[in-house]
Amino acid sequence: MNSPSAEYSIRKVLSANDLGLTGSHQAGILIPKQSRILSFFPHLSDLDENPSREVSVLHAETGTRWILRFVYYNSKPREVGTRNEYRLTRMMALLGAMDARVGDALVFKRSSIGEVNVSIDRHTESSSEISSRKVVLRGGWTLIDD
Q1: Is 2 among the domain residues?
Q2: Which residue of 48, 53, 118, 126 has the lowest C-beta tally within 10 Å?
């Protein structure tokens, strides 16, 4: 990750599309092109074609480690296609194991030793009210300063 001492977590409210319930052929969860969200993940060089890096996350509740893939599909800037987006892939097994549902929030938080922990916040009326420390972004993403 770029800055192991980062003092914030990122949160994504899951949609039916994120969970593969719509029959779409998307590859993973779309990551917004917002610097603080992108800086949570490993740096990807835009000089390479579709650069990617593995991201190890720990589901502390079960002690299970998952290896996800952070990828920048960059065919449009390279003028060889139409895609210009960041995605987090290899998510389906993790989401299934967490019994993730539409409206639940996937939360990524860096530990004090730089490890990325993942958890799920179940959708409830009170879960939509986090605090004044949040910045709501597009696509169901939220930054939370710890």
Answers
A1: no
A2: 126
CA-to-CA distance for 24 and 57, rounded, in angstroms? 25
Cα–Cα separations (whole angstroms), residue 99 to 85, 104, 112, 119, 137: 27, 10, 27, 11, 24
User: Containing H/E element for 113?
Assistant: none
Q: Give per-residue pLDDT as tens, 105-115.
A: 999 998 888 88
Structural domain harbouring 123: 8-145
Task: Assign residue 57 the CATH number of its domain.
Answer: 2.40.330.10
- Give the model confidence (pLDDT) of 5-44 as tens digits: 446 789 999 988 888 888 776 668 999 998 888 989 999 9
How many angstroms separate the CA atoms of 87 and 90, rounded?
10
Token representation of residue 84: 């210009």
In the numeric block, the tokens 């409210």 are attached to: 13
How far apart CA 58 and CA 116 sit, in angstroms, is 6
Residue 3 lies in a domain: no
User: Is residue 80 one of the residues assigned to a domain?
Assistant: yes
